[in-house]
Amino acid sequence: MAEPKKLFIKTYGCQMNVYDSERMAEALGSQGYVETQTPDDADMILLNTCHIREKAAEKVYSELGRFKGLKAEKPDLKIGVAGCVAQAEGAEIMRRQPMVDLVVGPQSYHRLPELEAKARGGEKALDTDFPEEDKFEHLKSRPKAARGPTAFLTVQEGCDKFCAFCVVPYTRGAEVSRPVDRVVREAQDLVERGVREITLLGQNVNAYHGAGPDGTDWSLARLIWELDKVDGLERIRFTTSHPNDMDDDLIEAHGTCAKLMPYLHLPVQAGSDKILKRMNRAHTAESYIRLIERIRAARPDILISGDFIVGFPEETEEDFQATMDLVEEVNYGYAYSFKYSTRPGTPAAERAQVPEDEKNDRLQRLQALLTTQQRAAQDAMVGKTVGILFEREGRLPGQMVGKSDHLHAVHVADCPAPAGTLAQVRIISSGANSLAGELLG
Ligand code: SAH
Ligand code: SF4
Ligand code: F3S
Q1: Are 375 and 389 within one domain?
Q2: Cα 61 from chain centroid (whole Å)
Q3: 88 close to ligand 3 (CB < 6 Angstrom)
Q4: Number of alpha carbons in the 13 Å side-chain half-sphere of residue 34
Q5: Atom of ligand 1 nearest to the CA of 342
Q6: pLDDT tens digits for 54-76?
Q7: Residue 381's closest CA among 333, 332, 435?
Q8: Which of 2, 317, 377, 412 is the most exposed place for a label (fewest CB within 10 A)?
């Protein structure tokens, strides 16, 4: 038998890219590839890229530069670019880096085996179409490889919201939802392979409206209740949500569905209504705060996380202060914050930009506040009993690590429970980035 070819995939960007990389590795597995952890012995290198901020996009070119030597040593090595930079820049990537053999956009992954064959044959292979078919349905998977206890499952892709700063509607295309039965089948398959926790993914996951078995469109809440019936699936999460798509059923599910974990990522981006309007977010600071109140009424201990952009065009010090006020009022358990990055082709790119030193200063102040809140939320867990799903062994002998219901990293010393166990743990201390706990019962 021929030696299997080796595939090295490097993933940037969001969790949807992580999911896509897994599926691409499976698809290329059916072409005789096995994964390798280093580019040095690879027959194919695939970069799954992100275009969200300038830094992320530029990283791809410096990374490609690093593979020049490898390619010179090994002319058979094929280099591919997938993901959102592939979609946004297409053939331009091959012009800038002629050693790239293959470019494939996020909606064309089911064509990867054909593209790989074309590249193997010495031709340049490019596909950045937005076809109608469900790419995941056409991505063949290896039979029943065992999995770790947690998995991502993409249920919705694309975005129709067109926030003025964001490339996603252009790189991922229009919003589409996968049908309920396919999602449920995939969840059952994951559970059979050892998965206990599934995070449902979508750029706008709570706008999910997949075709249900009864012929009507189902909401995300209805999909969650259907997944709740899957035996052996113990935990459900979903990300990322838009405030305007948080419907009553989904809020209620946080209070009534025991498998739905008490953590919600609900980006707001800014606290000034003027800026929110210019961002085309279609909600106000006040309506967001009221929404958080309703979610907390349904599930009082829920941990809220968010995304923020500072230095959006025309943001004044007063506007920034409104973001700080909103953060004070909401009190986040976790947060991601970014300096606004100009993205070609988006409406905000044309507007008056905030100077870099002001962006830096605002980011520092915002992050200081968010870090304090994050730390307080973590410290508040000390003394509490929380559910943990153990994921793997820790660095110390006998130690196990996992995530709490509230998504905190927790480690337990001298822990007899293997990975995949759900247990009750009492939190005994709070460290820099994780909690320590002791197993109960
Ligand atoms: N669909 C999600 C998140 C998409 S991108 C949502 O609607 O919230 C993830 C985060 O990246 C965004 O929430 C935003 O905070 C940040 N982001 C997107 N475009 C950006 C840009 N041009 N500059 C800086 N941050 C950006
Ligand atoms: Fe981007 Fe806005 Fe769509 Fe989120 S909702 S992906 S920030 S355009
Ligand atoms: Fe990046 Fe594309 Fe995700 S731009 S954040 S990889 S959808």
Answers
A1: no
A2: 22
A3: no
A4: 6
A5: 22
A6: 998 889 999 999 998 899 999 89
A7: 435
A8: 2
